[in-house]
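Notebook p. 47: complex prediction with zinc ion.
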Amino acid sequence: MDNLGIYSLLLLAVITGWILGRLTARGRSSRSRHNRNIFQDYFVGLNYLLNDEPDEAIDTFIKALEINSETIETHLALGALLRRRGKVDKAIKVHQALLARPGLDQSFSDSTRLQLAIDYISAGLLDRAERLLNEVLIEKTDAKWDALRHLITIYQTEKEWERAIDCSKMLLANSAYKREAELRAAAAHYCCEIAEKMLEEGQNNKAKEQIKRAFGFDKSNVRAALILANVEQRQGNFKAAIKQLIKVRTNNPEFVSQILGPLAECYEQLGNMPEYEKLLTNTLHEEPDVSVVLALSELVRKRANDEVAIEFLNDYLTRNPSLTGLVELLRLQIPKADAQVGSNLSLLQEMIDKLLRKKLAYQCNHCGYESKSLYWLCPSCQKWGRIKPLLDVVG
Ligand SMILES: [Zn+2]
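Predicted complex, structure tokens below:
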């Protein structure tokens, strides 16, 4: 929340308190001394506010605001504000005090439980948060949907994938959330997490079942397609593996660099490298990715010779300059140059190699986080499937 937001909320607290104070003072003159103290607190709080000390102002207002049915919402808002400002301990105290109030209205009790659960999650007290959220679930009120979202966050953090899937299913059963792409993608990734564990244990068929489940949530999930291709390849179903890998190329062309290794292995097993070369040539027309160029150049070199590969690379790189492509061209040229030129070229190749090693290969298209390896869950914004390979352009 920006400063303007904080000030607006605090000012609201001041005005609420002032009006309530006036009403109370008019009705009960015996409490005038008490009200004078409240006003004193308000002026102290206001003073903090004017001196740009919002944390002290929040503390003073909370002290001054008596908890009663009219001020519950203000307390809830001030508690959330404390949490956002990193004062989780204080936020917990405010929300606990609210929850302890006897005869709290159902909707306020749900809101307070949700807020307290968020406090606990922020403080890393996941067990306590889970307990509170399950209490909200049992009530079967509208707060249930928010509780489910927070429970998913908890189960994701604890890597309790089955529970995360159960909560996702409950949310997706609500027509308001049924088409939420982010929710569906996340649920598919939970299935992929289980599938990868099955693969590690050598349970190929069980992994396949999980992938089927993943496609049920998100049929174009790239990770699920890659895992399925891997299982098919392990089981010797090379044609089925190729089918999955081509599906990735069609649905998620930005992931083409991830499919080339397994594609080459499958075509090699089938003894059909000309078909692979044809596929790469077609792919290059649609997706000018340097990884395809390198794979193609290697194929051409094996099928014909270095000269044909050099000619192919020269032709391509003139139209689409790329540092990675240039390194490969140098690697092929060096053995053909005389000793002096060859050593200069080697030096040049080394320098570009060093530059490329520093380059980050993946980027989150939601928050911009860059990394050297592919993470399915962005470590920065915690969104699933948003990190994608970066295209190698000029450098
Ligand atoms: Zn991100």
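Notes: Residues 327 and 353 are 7 Å apart (CA to CA). The chain has a mean pLDDT of 85.
Next step: compare against the earlier run before touching the bench.
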